[in-house]
Amino acid sequence: MVVKVCTSTLDVIVSILNLWSGVLELEHFAEANMEFGFTPEQEKLKQEVRDFLKKELTPEVTAGMLEYGKGTGPAGTPGREFQKKLGAKGWLCPTWPREYGGLNSSQMVGFIIGDELVYGGAPHAFIGALIAGPTILRFGSDEMKNEFLPRIARGEIEFSMGYTEPQAGSDLAALEMRAEDKGDYFILNGQKTFNTHVHFADYHWLAVRTETDPNVKKHRGISLMVVDLKSPGITLRRMTTIAGDRTNEVFYDNVEVPKKNLVGEKNRGFYYIMSAIDLERVYIFGEYRRLFDELLKYTKETRRDGKYLNEDPIIRQKLAELAIEIEAVYLLYYQLAYLLDKEESISYQVSIQKTFATETAYRLADFATQIIGPLGQLQKDSKWAALNGEAEFRYRYSLIETIYMGTSEIQRNIIALRGLGLPTGR
Questions:
Q1: Is the dihedral of CA 409, 411, 414, 415 positive or negative?
Q2: Can you count the helices (H) and strands (E) in the chain?
Q3: Catalytic sites, residue numbers
Q4: Which of left, alpha, beta for 388 (phi over 0: left; psi -120 to 50: alpha)?
Q5: pLDDT at 5
Q6: Which CATH topology does 40-124 take?
Q7: Pairing of strands 234-240, 222-228
Q8: 7-33+295-419 sits in which CATH class?
Q9: Among 87, 267, 318, 370, which residue has the least CB neighbours within 10 Å?
């Protein structure tokens, strides 16, 4: 059967390739010899990660992830012990120098490990390894590097990100939580929201306002701090997302933070956050690639009206569309690794990848629920749920992923400004 791919999908791919033309010069293609496959060493690494997960990703670890909202859980739990095993392999921070617990590897190696872990269902999005650690590595004092980086790389400690406030999300410069300078320490008062891992993390990666002069531009008055979450005066309040996961509000009431926990220079926090945000926005698609593979298998094994689902021309066309888009997602994903290894900027390319990947994830989950039919709306606790309710769950969860780390609207503005040179419209 010939499958006709919808024009809109092809238009998306062509648009992406046109954007690439301003990023990857012809000599880059010549240098790569148009090789889009993995090297034998990289294939070996992929298999090593898969074998590791078969052995170490036990039902206890998976149950712990669900209990703590997809995270690893507190110290001493199976999830945290699994995190330590990742650290022992050097897979939490593979690109870091060996002196701090890394493998001194390429970004490509890190991207391969990340995708295989996520595809296999392992915990991911470790804030210490992804956000706090790289920023400390770049801007922190030697004392801070020695105190935190080896423990992050070994999986002994975990962080929760504390940026968002009720009035400050995409506009981070609007944050109001204050840190009063008391000489050797700061006193913190205020509120953070959507702090996903804070209920089991050890430290808060916190953005606060340290400049009180109203004449200073808002983004120039923000500092970054590392806060021990056992400090007196910190209160957590549970929030539940549309996907059923736990996130949190965090309240600070006269919390004392030592001056040595200031990251880099005072009032430079906004710049540090902006320098790290590109890596934060890299979207790992592995969970949805697994959903696609399971959906494909489901259509080959499930009969409806006397025919297998994969014999239906509409279903075949939708699956073909998704296969095209997933291939584009991975080309964008590994293009980022390529650029980073070349020490080139990914300031708008990561916005392309994040937007296209999260919106593809949403379309995939939506298509999956349609292909499955009424049973696709059932959740995991139903004995009738197809694919163990994964399609329904991903339908809800993928909506969140188009919002966090900058909404799709924010990403499109970045692409327009930095990638296409369009005016701001102000």
A1: negative
A2: 15, 10
A3: 280
A4: left
A5: 43
A6: Butyryl-Coa Dehydrogenase, subunit A; domain 1 (1.10.540)
A7: unpaired
A8: mainly alpha
A9: 370
Indicate the domain borders of the chain. Answer: 7-33+295-419, 40-124, 161-276
Structure tokens at 38: 């993995």
Question: Among 125, 219, 126, 208, which residue's Cα sits nearest to residue 164?
Answer: 208
Q: For residues 335 and 75, what is the distance between their CA atoms, to the nearest angstrom?
A: 36
> How far from the centroid of its chain's Cα atoms is residue 261's Cα?
25
Length of the chain counted residue by residue:
426
Spatial distance between the Cα atoms of 369 and 382, rounded to a whole number of angstroms: 15
State the DSSP H helix or E strand holding residue 160, giving kind and residue range, or none if neither: strand 159-162
pLDDT in tens, 384-400: 999 989 999 999 999 99
Q: What is the DSSP string of 39-80?
A: -HHHHHHHHHHHHHHHHH--HHHHHHHHHTTSS--STTSHHH
Is 419 exposed, middle or buried, given 0-12, 13-18 or 19+ CB atoms closer than 10 A? middle
Q: In this structure, what token pair is assigned to residue 327?
A: 């291939």
How large is the average pLDDT for residues 321-327?
96
- pLDDT tens, 367-426? 999 999 998 899 888 889 999 899 999 999 999 999 888 899 999 999 999 999 998 766
Nearest to 280 by CA among 360, 163, 365: 163
CATH no. of 161-276: 2.40.110.10
Quick count: other Cβ atoms within 10 Å of Cβ 29?
Answer: 11
pLDDT in tens, 278-301: 888 999 999 999 999 999 999 999
Mean pLDDT of the chain: 89
> How big, in percent rounded to 5, are the helix, strand and coil portions of the chain?
55, 15, 35
pLDDT tens string 113-133 = 999 999 999 988 799 999 999
Instruction: Round to whole Å and give the CA distance between 188 and 226.
Output: 12
DSSP output for 85-112: HHHHHT-SSTTS-GGGT-----HHHHHH
